[in-house]
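Bumping with the actual sequence this time:
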Amino acid sequence: MDILYLHPAKQEADARFDKFLPSSPYPFIPVGVIGFVNLLRSDGWDVVGLNLPMELAIEPTFDLRQWLRSQPPAKLVLIDLHWYEHCFGAIEAAKTVKSVWSQTKIVIGGLTSSNFAEEILANFPEIDFIVRGDAEKPLQLLAAFCCGDSPASLKEIPNLLYRVDGKSKQNARTYFAKASDLDSFDFVSTDWLLHSRSYAAMQHYGQGKIDLKNPQQLGHWLTVGRGCVFNCSYCGGGKKSHEELAGRNGYVTRTPGNVVEDIARLSELGYQQVALSLDIATFGPEWWRTFFAQLKERQLKIGIYNEFFQLPPSEFLDEMGATVDLAHTEVAISPLSGNEAVRKKNGKFYTNERFLNMLQTLKRYEIPIFIYFSLNLPGETFATFKETLQLAHEIGQTYPPHLLRMLNPCHTLDPLSPMSRQPDAFGMTVHYKSFMDYYNYCKGTGWQTRQVMRGQHRGFEMKTRPTPVVEQMAQVWDMFASKQNFRCFPVPRGW
């Protein structure tokens, strides 16, 4: 191979999943990776992709170091550090690569690495380059520099950070992916990824136990745009974050026709479900009416997984219910709390009445739903938590149990989220501020311990709601969950 793309686990690169019980290794590849890998391939480079947590799920004794030794050294290795949960794993993966391929250059990118770029370069010599913001054009030029005989110099590559005489140097951030760029990229082909069909099985939502060694039901996370138009309290991928890290104001959306064309390709490849990277219900009626109309026109019957950022219009649900393959469809909705003031404080702008009315529409079409509350967000107290339990009870009483899943996890502080930026506005104390804070958090929470206080090691604490109170609330939720006739999960004890 010329280039290796490596998706790290949360845990260390030589983790033994056969001996210890891991917290989630976070196996999902950032959706943009597929586009830039295929762009590099179109330039003639031989790219191989390895998803470390997936390989460990298939074979718990998988040895990355041994696998690297069995391959001729790549000239460039791409490691994503998009989500903070990979802060430790990505660095450890880079160290493992350098221990085997000492001369190979390593580049990382993603929202988290964009945010902490200077600190990472200052502390980890294993990382040679960081792309801050959009990566397609920078990676094309960097691949030509590292793998070919390009006369270009590093200083000509936009959005790139690197070292000069041991000090960090940042080039101008002049590359921003436009809508036309996104429409030109291939966000479908994954034949470069080892065990690509096993990964497709992992991406199919709503099914029971997944058989990675004999995949049957296949799903695919598909890029439909970039950016966001909201600033939810807990999310580090909101509008303000994209504006600061990628120079993007709001959404950059692909055209409906190009998304439909990708879905047609996936259907021909045997995929039963497509997960959309953004909530298309927030794109506006002109976009999603065209999208559903073209699916009908081409007689494409495929399942859709869509996460509703806010409540969708009734017409959207009517179009969806009449168009998609409901046997392979699921929608996710996050009311966060049963208390409307808490919900609004954290970025969701609808009442319980509107929410329950919308469920009636979903129920009419028998659309499977996954409801997400959040146990430890700002404003949720024992008093408001009673309202959450009441709303959860009403949902369970009104929605068919075989179509309902429900979870109430604890959030960890997301870098660049409003909670992280403005802790005083939320009445909280922030503990995680630097990259090393997140590196040590990931290092210390990679494995499930026997006794875990829910709400612990989350990077923040509410001034009026100490962590032991969160654990008490979690115990009450666990009792509630155990009594339901639908799939209602206890509060996770891991991270």
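The tokens above came from a reply further down the thread. The first helix runs from residue 32 to 42.
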